[in-house]
Specification:
20% strand, 19 strands, flat, alpha+beta, 11-stranded mixed beta sheet, single chain
Length: 516
C-alpha cells in the first residue's frame, strides 16, 4: 500500500497546487475561486455586504472527547461530545463553527493514539517506507502575506525535514496518515460508514511562532483535532455558503476582520462548515500538531442531480413523443438574450412548453439507479474495514489453509446452521447494470486513496433477494438456511462466496473441514 498516485481529500488552498494533478479522474477540473486581483476585490465586496457572524456566536463547550469505537454513531458522538448527536446536525452542521474544550489528560493522550510528532519521525527514518516530498509530505510557510513552498525532490529524510521544521520554521503537511496508524484508519473508516462518503485526513505540524498556510476556505466539512501544543485560530465570514470549490490563497486585506479568534490546546476539537475562511499559527512557546478530518466533498443534492437529470432526459426522449417534437420554426426570432425583454405571446408559449416538459421529466428520474451510482463511487473512495480480533477469528482471514502431505487442510465449509452477518453496514452494495447483477464491496480496497480498483462480483439474479436479506438483517446474525433461496446448495454456495471475499463473518470461528 505504499505505492500511490492519488488524490488527497484535504484542506485545499494553493498550498496543495502541486497535488492537483492527482485528482480523481472522474472529477471535472475545478475553477479555483478568488484566483485574481479582480476576484479578490469581488470577494472583499461580498464580505462587506454579507451579514457577518457576531463573535459571541462562537459556541464553546467543555468536556467529553474520549473515543468510543463501539459503532460509527457512538464514535462521532464521542468526538463532538458533550453536544448531543441530533443537536449537532440541527444547529451546527453546515451552519456554524463549534469548539469543544477538553482540559483532561486522558483525552489528549487518546488523541495521540491517532498520530504524533514521534510517529512522523519514525516513519521518516524507516528505510522500507518511501516518504516523498509533495506526494506524501508538503513543506511550506506563510511569511509577509505570501505562502512559500520549501519542498525538496524525491525521498524526504528525517534530517532534511527536521532542518526545514526547526531552522526554516516550515509547516509539515502529511497526507493520508491513516496508511500508517491503525487507530486513525479505524476512525476514518467508521466515520465513512456514518456519513456515507469519503472521509480524508491530513496532519499539520507547525513550529513555534510560525504559520504554514495562507487564509483560504475549503470545499469540505472540517473537524480539527488538536493533538499536541497550541494553535491560534482566526475564522472569517464565508463569502459563499457551502461552496463546491475551494479557494486559492486569499489576501489579508480581502477577508475583513475575524469573526472568531481563539486558541486550541491538546485534546480540543474545532468544527467549521465548508466555505469558512480560516488561518492558524502556532503560539511562540510551543509547536502545534493537529489532524484535519474532512468529509462531504461533492456529496450534495446537486451532485446527485447531475447524475439523475441526464439519465431522466435520455429516458424521456426515448419514451415520450412530446420530447421529440420539433422546435417552433420561428423560435430564434423571439428567444435568446437579445429578446429577453420582448413582450410576445409566442415567447410566453415557448417558456410554458419548457416548464411543462421539465415537470414531466420528473416522472423519468431514475432515483434509485442514480443513488446506486453514487454508492459505487463512495465504495471506490472508502477504506476497507478494520477487523477486531474476534471478527478476524470468525472470518476468512482467521482460517489458515496449508499443505500437509500433499493435501490442503484447514479449508472451511459453512453449513446451513452457520450464523453469519455482513462485516460492516455499507461494506457491500447490490447494483443492477443492464440485465446483470453485481455485488460491489470494499474488502479489497487499500488504505491509500484509490490504491486498488473495485472488484465487483457478478451474481445470478436469483441470488439478489438473499443478499438483500443479509444487508437488511445487519447487525443481526442469520443462519445460512434462512437465505431466501430454493435449494440448500445454492444457500451454501452464496454464503461461501461472500465468506471467502471477507464480506460476511460467522458468529463463531468456523471449523475447518479436516477437523469435521
Amino acid at each position: 500500500h505504499q505505492n500511490q498516485d492519488v488524490k488527497v481529500l484535504e484542506e485545499k488552498s494553493s498550498h496543495s497546487d502541486s497535488l492537483q494533478d492527482t485528482k480523481q479522474k472522474t472529477t471535472k477540473e475545478k475553477r479555483p475561486l478568488a484566483d485574481s486581483k479582480t476576484d479578490q476585490l469581488s470577494l472583499a465586496k461580498k464580505l462587506k455586504t454579507k451579514n457577518a457572524v457576531k463573535k459571541d456566536e462562537l459556541d464553546i463547550v467543555e468536556g467529553g472527547g474520549r473515543f468510543d469505537f463501539r459503532s460509527p454513531q457512538k464514535l462521532f458522538e464521542s468526538i463532538i461530545s458533550p453536544v448531543p448527536y441530533e443537536q449537532f446536525f440541527n444547529d451546527y452542521w453546515e451552519k456554524k463553527p463549534l469548539i469543544a474544550k477538553r482540559n483532561e489528560v486522558a483525552v489528549s493522550e487518546g488523541y495521540k493514539t491517532l498520530f504524533s510528532r514521534d510517529v512522523l519521525k519514525r516513519l521518516l527514518k524507516k528505510r522500507q517506507i518511501d516518504i516523498e516530498y509533495v506526494r506524501d509530505v508538503n513543506v511550506c510557510r506563510y511569511v509577509n502575506g505570501k505562502r512559500e513552498s520549501l519542498n525538496g525532490t524525491g525521498r524526504a529524510t528525517c534530517k532534511q525535514v527536521d532542518k526545514l521544521f526547526d531552522h526554516c520554521k516550515a509547516t509539515l503537511q502529511f497526507h493520508q496518515p491513516q496508511r500508517f496508524q491503525n487507530k486513525l484508519w479505524q476512525l476514518c473508516g467508521m466515520l465513512e460508514c456514518l456519513f456515507g462518503c469519503l472521509v480524508g485526513a491530513n496532519v499539520y505540524m507547525t513550529p513555534p511562532g510560525s504559520q504554514g498556510l495562507a487564509p483560504h476556505y475549503d470545499d469540505v466539512e472540517v473537524f480539527i483535532l488538536q493533538l499536541e501544543g497550541r494553535k491560534h485560530w482566526r475564522l472569517y465570514t464565508p463569502p459563499v455558503d457551502l461552496p463546491r470549490d475551494y479557494s486559492k490563497d486569499l489576501d489579508q486585506d480581502s477577508i475583513g476582520q475575524p469573526t472568531h479568534d481563539f486558541v486550541l490546546e491538546a485534546g480540543d476539537l474545532l468544527y467549521f462548515p465548508r466555505g469558512t475562511i480560516h488561518q492558524a499559527s502556532a503560539l511562540p512557546d510551543t509547536h502545534s500538531l493537529h489532524i484535519t478530518v474532512s468529509t462531504c466533498q461533492r456529496n450534495t443534492w446537486g451532485d446527485l442531480l447531475e447524475k439523475l437529470v441526464p439519465a431522466a432526459l435520455t429516458m424521456a426522449v426515448g419514451e415520450d413523443v412530446e420530447f421529440r417534437q420539433a422546435l417552433p420554426r420561428d423560435y430564434l426570432d423571439y428567444m435568446g438574450l437579445a429578446n429577453a425583454d420582448m413582450d410576445d405571446p409566442r415567447r410566453k408559449a415557448f417558456l410554458g412548453t419548457v416548464q411543462s416538459l421539465l415537470a414531466r421529466l420528473v416522472n423519468y428520474v431514475p432515483v434509485d439507479a442514480g443513488v446506486d451510482q453514487k454508492a459505487v463511487e463512495y465504495m471506490h473512495d472508502c477504506l476497507p474495514p478494520v477487523f477486531t480480533k474476534k471478527e478476524r477469528a470468525c472470518s476468512i482471514y482467521g482460517c489458515r489453509t496449508r499443505l500437509e502431505k500433499g493435501r490442503v487442510v484447514g479449508v472451511v465449509d459453512l453449513q446451513t446452521s452457520t450464523a453469519v452477518k455482513l462485516i460492516r453496514k455499507g461494506a457491500a452494495r447490490l447494483v443492477m447494470e443492464g440485465e446483470q447483477v453485481f455485488l460491489y464491496h470494499v474488502l479489497e480496497n487499500a488504505r491509500v486513496y484509490h490504491g486498488a480498483e473495485l472488484q465487483p462480483i457478478e451474481v445470478p439474479p436469483e441470488a439478489a433477494p438473499a443478499i438483500e436479506y443479509l444487508m437488511h438483517s445487519y447487525p443481526e446474525y442469520v443462519t445460512v438456511d434462512s437465505f431466501p433461496l430454493d435449494h440448500r446448495q445454492d444457500k451454501i454456495d452464496l454464503a461461501m462466496l461472500m465468506f471467502e471475499k471477507g464480506i460476511i463473518i460467522a458468529k463463531e470461528p468456523p471449523v475447518s473441514m479436516d477437523k469435521m
